[in-house]
Each structure stands twice: as structure tokens, then as C-alpha cells.
């Protein structure tokens, strides 16, 4: 009985969370664009092919945006996530090519992500450096190591498990999108329903107060960056599968895309607030817009302008409604 | 105690990073150094051993054949090479590299400008200091560089258009993905291709031209969306070195071969060459950059001896198909 009530309140909490103001606004915007596109391009937009296309394209960004959301809620930023992702992909491709057990190679790739994330966390907390500086430095280190390993060449990979993760599907749903949904669900649960999530929010809201209330701030922050490293490694595995190769340039724009998705999703740059669902919707919105611009044959020079404008407009509307509510 | 341990750990990490970066920086240059020292004495006993700098615009596999052939030739004639490249398309980094080479008083420099306007003044400064400078791949028209070798990209683009028209038998539909819209060479290739198709193959229709910004993930999204928007296309064409490998991956994921939809694209990067061998890519248009390495060292030596070199050399481009994929470099 007790458990049933608890479950029901939790369920209603999740449903309430689904329709919180920012997310529902984003959801509406997404719906409007999709409806508009279905009318404008009935043959090509709202087809299962294209919908799965979009999900495939946003999956990696959504996965690392989960990590970025945790980092930004804790009051930091992770600029190394893109090159960390690429580095993990290169490491696992390199070791697969060397001929060691492919699953061991994949584990080494994941370990790389964990180490990079952990080092970020340790340097930010123990050296008391701003996350911006540490992760910027780490991004450069990761990029450098990538070039040391590859000299700029891609490393081709044909292991069926890796390729399956990137290109396979179960009941015609792309596997990488299933991975994305699982990670989003776990991330949302951890952030909103666990002590760890509450602590991360408390640290981002007021670090000193969090410390005084007995939260082990350093340990918590290191955990957040390490978690982000794990997600980067998963992203790295997927991109290798997608490209059939570890590509040294694969991570170049991911950190900015993940930050854009997170911010559009309503996470405050100052920390303390934000949701995983918002980050997913942010990634989806940007993905749908990019897809639509290609389907609509928009000139390539204008697409970048459009994406940039959308980021500013969505955030401006959010600020406006917030001020009005106050 | 804990603190001590932490500092020790940090010191270890820093030392490791330092070592890795040292190893990374010095490898291409030091290879050339050791190899040339062995050969310098017998071949050129009177002249002082010359040092030349070769500067690429970015770390990229396209330039590896240039580095390899140049190092081999330099070894034969007995001179030292310092090969450098910024780790991303960054004109500031490239200018720093050039400044360092000038400070090292090298005898000659061959450079691919990341931005020919911005690099021109530093090239002139080097020439004022008595250093011989030539450009390759992309020219630096506003400088006093002594010579240029590279591909006429307009002509290479025309060759691409020609190949597309021929492979389609003069009739079909085309989608195109290019790289960074700021790269002059890519825009010239696009112009060349469009010109030939418009003039000689009116039956070929260009459905869409998009940009993948030279980034594999963006390129993948763009190509997939274009396939979605135009399912009736016949040929995909990539203008930069990223389009071909990404398209080949998409083809593999869909189980397509060149008999389903054609890929006719640029550059002989390994994935593209493999794609031709695997029957996924129909044809490649490639610059002949493997001929540049020898010529760079020859030209710089000639200039240092007081001779002249050609002001402009078009080294041409070739079409690679399954027929000549193993022999095209001969």
C-alpha cells in the first residue's frame, strides 16, 4: 500500500516534471515546427525514415548533453567533452586495430573517458581552478594526444559490435537512440530523485552553503566530471560505429552543440537549476531545425545563421516569460 | 600527508604530459635530422648542410605523402627538413610557426597558407631576411614568394564534372556536399564542376549543394538529410576530403554499393581509396600531391644556389577508379 502511494506520487512527479513550464514551451515549439514541416514537406519530413534519421543525428549530442547538464547545474562547464569523445573513439579504434580483444579495447576507450573526466574534476576541486580553464586545457591535451596517436589519419574499424552500436536497429528503432533514451531516463532520475542529484543542485545554487550544510563538495564535483567522461566515452563508441572509423576530427563541435542543447533546454549558465528532459528537447529542437533546413533546400550559408538565431531567440523568450512571472 | 601525495601525483602527471608533448613535437623534425646527417657528408661535401622548413596549413592525412616524399628526397640530396603544421586551421598558429622558422635562420621555407592574405606579410619578412620562400597547394599572390606549385582547382573541379557526366551517361540527379565555405580551393572546384555540367551535360541536374563544415559529424547529418530530401538522386559528390569517407560509411550502413547509388568524390585519403577497392566509391578525383615533396626540395635548393624556379606550376589532377586504384601513383 505504502509503496503503491509512493510510486504514484513519484509517477505524478515525473508527469508534472514533463509539463513544467520551460519543457512544455520547448515541446510546443518542437510540435509547431514539426507540424509546419509536415505540411511543407509531406513526402519527406514526417516519414519513419526521417524521424529515425533525426533521432540518430541528435543521439550523441543528447547523451553528452546529459553530462553537460549535470556539470552546468553544479555551476561549471565542460569544454573538453568533444575532444574527450573523439579521444575515446581513437583509443578504442587504435586498440581494436592492434588486435587485442575488442571488448578490452572498448573498455580502454571508456577508461580513457573516465580518466579525462576524473582529472578535470580533480584539477577543478584540488587546484581550485575555474572549470572553464581546466576543461579548455584538457580539450587541447586530448586533441594533441589524438594527433600523436593518429597523425591526422582515421583508424578504420569493422568490429560488428561497434558497427552495430552505431548503425544497427532493434524493431527498426536505431540502437543508438535506444541508448540515448536509457541514458536520458537514468540521468533524469538521478538528478531529480536521488541525494546525489539534490547535492549537485545545491552546489550549483550556493557552493558555500552546500559546504556548510555538510555536503562533500569536492567529491561530488569530481563525480560529476567523471560521469561526464563516461558519457563522452559512450558517445565516442557510437561515433566510431557511425563512421566505421575512429576519426580524429569527430569531436570538434560537440562541446558547443552540447552546451547549446543544454542552454536551450533551460539550464542556467549560473548553475543550480536545469533538467535533463530540457536538454533532450533542446538537442531535438536543434536537430529538427538543422534537418528541416536541409529538407527545405535552404542555402548552406544561411543555415548557420538560422541555428545561431534560434539559440538566442529561445533563450530570450525564456528570460521574458521568467521576468513576467516575477 | 594526503597533500604530499597529491602534489607528487600532480608532478608525475605533469612530467608525463611534458614527455608526451616532447615526443609528439620532435618526431617529424628529428627523423629528418638523423637521416640527413648520415648522408650529408658523401653527397655534398663542400656546401654547408641546408635546412628547409615545410609548413602545412593543418595536421591532415592529405599532406602525409608530401612529407614522406620530401623527407625521402631530402635524405638523398643531404639536407635537413623541419616539417610543421598547426593542429587546427588557425592562421595565428601558422604565423607563429613561420616566425620561429625565421628566427632559426632556415635556408628556405615551403608553405601552404591557411589564409593567403594574413600570411603574405610574414612571407615577405622572411624573404627580406634572405630566406627563400615558395608556396604550394594554395598560392600567396600578395607576397614576393619565389614560386608556386599546386593544383588548378578550377580545372580539377571541371574534371569532377566531366567524370560525373560520363558516369551518368549524361543524364541523372546529383547531390553535393562541400567543406568549409571559406576555403577558396573548394569554391573553385565547385565552380569548375557546375560550369562543366551546365555546359556539357544539361541532362544532369544538381538537386542540392550543402556544407558539412569539414566536420565528420555535421557532414554525416547533412548527407543523410539530403538523401532523405532527394531519395531519387543518382550521384553523391563530395568536394572536400571529409565527404567521401563519410558517404562511404553511410553506404556501408545502408548496404549500398556503387551499383545502387554512385559516389564520385575528391581526394585520395585512405578511406576513399579503400572505398574504391571495396566497390562502394565509383571514382575519385585526386590532386597529385605525392609529386610535390621532391619538387619542393629541388626548388628550394635551386633558389639557394641562386637559380630561378617556375612562378606557377599546375601539377594537375587524376581520376582514380577500380581500374587504376593500385597503380595511379606510377
How many domains comprise the coordinates of chain B? 2
- Distance between the terminal alpha carbons of chain A, to the nearest Å? 40 Å
Instruction: Give the helix tally of chain A.
Output: 14
Instruction: Tell me the radius of gyration of chain A.
Output: 20 Å
Please indicate the percent range of residues of chain B in DSSP E strands (runs of 2 or more): 15-25%
Which architecture of the largest domain in chain B does the CATH hierarchy give at level 2?
3-Layer(aba) Sandwich
| CATH homologous superfamily grouping of the largest domain in chain B | Response regulator
Largest sheet geometry of chain A: 2 strands, antiparallel
Report helical residue fraction of chain B. Answer: 40-55%
Give me the oligomer status.
Answer: heterodimer
CATH class of the largest domain in chain B: Alpha Beta
The class by helix and strand makeup of chain A works out as mainly alpha
The residue fraction in helices of chain A comes out at over 70%
Describe what this molecule looks like in 3D.
- The complex is a heterodimer of chains A (326) and B (330).
- In chain A, 78% of the residues lie in helices and 2% in strands.
- The N and C termini of chain A lie far apart (40 Å).
- The longest helix of chain A is centred in the last third of the chain and has 27 residues.
- Chain A has a domain of 223 residues.
- The mean pLDDT of chain A is 90.
- In chain A, helix 3 packs parallel to helix 8 and helix 7 packs across helix 11.
- Chain A is mostly helical and 326 residues long.
- In chain B, helix 1 packs across helix 2, helix 2 crosses helix 10 and helix 3 packs parallel to helix 4.
- In chain B, strand 1, helix 2 and strand 2 form a beta-alpha-beta unit.
- About 7% of the residues of chain B have low confidence.
- Chain B has 2 domains: 152 residues, Response regulator (Rossmann fold); 135 residues, 3-Layer(aba) Sandwich (Rossmann fold), CATH 3.40.50.
- Chain B is an alpha/beta fold.
- Chain B has a 6-stranded parallel beta sheet with strand order 2-1-3-4-5-11, with helices on both faces. In chain B, strands 7-6-8-9-10-12 form a 6-stranded mixed beta sheet, sandwiched between helices.
- At the A-B interface, helix 3, helix 6, helix 7, helix 11 and helix 13 of A face helix 1, strand 7, helix 7, helix 8 and helix 9 of B.
Amino acid at each position: 500500500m505504502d509503496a503503491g502511494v509512493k510510486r504514484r506520487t513519484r509517477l505524478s512527479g515525473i508527469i508534472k516534471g514533463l509539463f513544467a513550464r520551460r519543457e512544455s514551451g520547448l515541446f510546443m515549439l518542437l510540435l509547431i515546427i514539426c507540424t509546419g514541416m509536415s505540411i511543407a514537406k509531406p513526402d519527406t519530413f514526417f516519414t519513419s525514415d526521417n524521424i529515425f534519421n533525426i533521432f540518430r543525428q541528435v543521439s550523441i549530442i543528447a547523451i553528452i548533453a546529459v553530462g553537460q547538464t549535470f556539470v552546468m547545474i553544479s555551476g561549471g562547464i565542460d569544454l573538453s567533452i568533444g575532444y574527450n569523445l573523439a579521444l575515446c573513439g581513437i583509443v578504442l579504434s587504435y586498440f581494436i586495430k592492434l588486435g587485442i580483444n575488442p571488448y578490452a579495447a572498448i573498455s580502454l576507450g571508456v577508461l580513457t573517458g573516465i580518466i579525462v573526466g576524473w582529472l578535470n574534476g580533480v584539477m577543478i576541486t584540488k587546484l581550485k581552478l575555474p572549470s572553464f580553464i581546466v576543461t579548455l586545457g584538457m580539450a587541447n591535451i586530448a586533441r594533441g594526444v589524438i594527433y600523436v596517436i593518429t597523425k591526422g589519419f582515421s583508424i578504420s574499424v569493422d568490429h560488428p559490435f561497434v558497427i552495430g552500436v552505431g548503425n544497427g536497429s532493434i524493431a527498426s528503432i536505431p540502437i543508438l537512440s535506444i541508448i540515448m533514451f536509457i541514458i536520458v531516463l537514468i540521468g533524469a532520475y538521478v538528478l531529480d530523485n536521488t541525494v546525489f542529484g539534490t547535492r549537485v543542485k545545491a552546489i550549483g545554487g550556493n557552493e558555500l552553503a552546500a559546504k556548510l550544510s555538510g555536503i562533500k563538495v569536492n567529491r561530488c564535483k569530481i563525480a560529476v566530471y567523471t560521469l561526464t567522461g563516461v558519457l563522452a566515452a559512450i558517445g565516442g563508441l557510437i561515433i566510431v560505429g557511425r563512421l566505421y572509423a575512429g576519426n580524429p576530427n569527430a569531436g570538434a563541435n560537440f562541446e558547443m552543440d552540447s552546451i547549446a542543447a543544454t542552454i536551450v533546454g533551460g539550464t542556467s549558465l549560473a548553475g543550480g537549476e536545469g533538467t535533463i528532459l530540457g536538454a533532450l528537447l533542446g538537442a531535438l529542437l536543434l536537430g529538427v531545425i538543422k534537418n528541416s533546413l536541409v529538407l527545405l533546400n535552404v542555402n548552406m550559408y544561411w543555415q548557420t545563421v538560422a541555428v545561431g538565431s534560434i539559440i538566442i531567440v529561445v533563450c530570450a523568450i525564456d528570460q521574458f516569460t521568467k521576468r513576467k512571472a516575477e | 600527508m594526503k597533500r604530499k601525495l597529491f602534489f607528487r601525483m600532480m608532478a608525475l602527471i605533469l612530467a608525463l604530459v611534458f614527455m608526451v608533448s616532447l615526443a609528439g613535437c620532435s618526431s617529424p623534425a628529428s627523423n629528418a635530422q638523423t637521416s640527413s646527417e648520415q648522408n650529408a657528408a658523401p653527397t655534398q661535401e663542400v656546401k654547408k648542410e641546408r635546412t628547409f622548413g615545410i609548413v602545412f596549413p593543418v595536421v591532415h592525412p592529405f599532406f602525409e605523402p608530401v612529407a614522406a616524399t620530401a623527407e625521402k628526397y631530402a635524405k638523398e640530396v643531404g639536407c635537413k627538413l623541419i616539417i610543421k603544421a598547426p593542429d587546427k586551421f588557425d592562421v595565428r598558429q601558422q604565423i607563429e610557426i613561420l616566425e620561429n622558422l625565421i628566427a632559426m635562420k632556415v635556408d628556405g621555407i615551403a608553405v601552404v597558407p591557411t589564409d593567403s592574405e594574413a600570411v603574405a606579410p610574414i612571407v615577405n619578412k622572411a624573404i627580406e631576411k634572405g630566406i627563400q620562400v615558395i608556396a604550394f597547394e594554395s598560392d600567396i599572390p600578395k607576397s614576393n614568394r619565389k614560386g608556386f606549385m599546386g593544383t588548378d582547382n578550377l580545372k580539377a573541379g571541371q574534371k569532377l564534372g566531366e567524370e560525373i557526366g560520363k558516369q551518368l551517361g549524361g543524364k541523372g540527379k546529383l547531390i553535393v556536399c562541400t567543406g568549409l565555405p571559406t576555403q577558396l580551393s573548394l569554391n573553385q572546384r565547385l565552380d569548375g564542376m557546375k560550369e562543366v555540367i551546365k555546359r556539357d551535360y544539361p541532362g544532369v541536374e544538381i538537386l542540392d549543394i550543402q556544407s558539412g563544415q569539414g566536420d565528420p559529424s555535421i557532414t554525416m547529418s547533412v548527407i543523410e538529410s539530403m538523401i532523405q530530401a532527394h531519395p531519387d538522386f543518382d550521384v553523391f559528390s563530395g568536394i572536400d576530403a571529409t565527404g567521401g569517407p563519410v558517404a562511404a560509411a553511410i553506404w556501408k550502413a545502408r548496404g549500398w554499393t556503387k551499383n545502387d547509388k554512385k559516389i564520385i568524390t575528391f581526394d585520395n585519403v585512405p578511406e576513399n581509396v579503400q572505398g574504391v577497392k571495396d566497390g562502394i566509391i565509383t571514382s575519385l578525383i585526386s590532386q597529385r600531391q605525392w609529386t610535390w615533396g621532391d619538387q619542393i626540395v629541388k626548388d628550394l635548393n635551386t633558389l639557394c644556389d641562386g637559380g630561378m624556379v617556375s612562378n606557377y606550376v599546375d601539377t594537375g589532377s587524376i581520376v582514380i577508379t577500380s581500374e587504376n586504384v593500385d597503380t595511379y601513383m606510377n
